[in-house]
Amino acid sequence: MSPRKTPFEYIKQSVENEGYLPTELITRLPKHWRRIGTVGIIELHTSLWPWKEKIGQNYLSGISELSTIMQKVGVTTTTIRTPGLEVLAGNPDTVTLHKELGCKFWIDALRLTFSTGNHAERQRLIKITTEGEQIIDMFACVGNLSVPISVHHPTVEVKGIEINPYAYSFLEKNIQVNHLKDRYQPIFGDNQTHTPINWADRVLLGYFELTPRQLEVALQALKQDQGGILHTHGLTTARQPFNWRQAINKLILEEFPYFKMKDTKQRVIKSIAPGVHHFVDDIHIIRKI
Ligand SMILES: C[S@@+](CC[C@H](N)C(=O)[O-])C[C@H]1O[C@@H](n2cnc3c(N)ncnc32)[C@H](O)[C@@H]1O
Hints:
Elements: H1 7-18, E1 34-36, E2 39-42, H2 52-62, E3 68-72, E4 85-90, E5 95-100, E6 103-108, H3 119-128, E7 134-137, H4 146-152, E8 157-162, H5 165-177, E9 184-188, H6 191-194, E10 202-205, H7 212-221, E11 227-236, H8 245-255, E12 259-273, E13 276-287
Parallel strand pairs: 2-3, 7-8, 7-10, 8-9, 10-11
Antiparallel strand pairs: 1-2, 3-4, 5-6, 11-13, 12-13
The structure holds S-adenosylmethionine.
């Protein structure tokens, strides 16, 4: 008996059998895909784009648990982080239930961001959070980073701020389906004006383009008599190893003289492109004695 084919072997075989793709391009078919709920996301080399719908159909037939195949066509853009995706095959309704780390995330995979590459960071945040903490997620989206913390720590309180009404509607739903109503407060609005002050032990800043005002608000959000931890995110390239530490230090000197930066740790979350990494800085701020 021949061994059962992997989904990719099945997809490749179907594309070959259907004969629409020039043979020399077969090797460019992507061997991996990302998955959000029942939506699969592939990245096709531009040389394959003339056949993208047919290819999408082959992936849909080859991966039994998926109902939609999308492809990445550009970068995530705009303040509300609209992912650059298009549907190639299957159900055009891209609202799906994604399950991860014992949590349920309802999300529109076409229109909202949920990075599967941030899985390890979601896991790490669960691990480093201690019971009884108060956490603010200034860029909550559908609860990507903060719902897992709340699910795994019943004594932790979270406040999550989201500016996009569509993402906010999913955040509310995810609080409900994960039974977090008593300890996760969603706040609709701009975090520059809607972030609670003097409340948090930990502030999540899962966004690459922070404004000076957002950094100031993050420092105000910390418990002023204790300090806490800010998690800032950024991108590095060989030419631009960027981080927010310098800007935060300057703010501390100018506006929060009773604070000081105790230590910072940097971790790479994922590789975005050759030489470009998404990283997170854990910035521990304490009160000067
Ligand atoms: C890139 S997503 C990140 C989601 C999550 N923090 C993560 O790291 O996976 C950023 C989210 O922040 C929201 N956002 C952007 N600017 C905001 C602001 N000024 N106030 C509140 N939310 C904002 C966007 O609408 C989007 O849902």
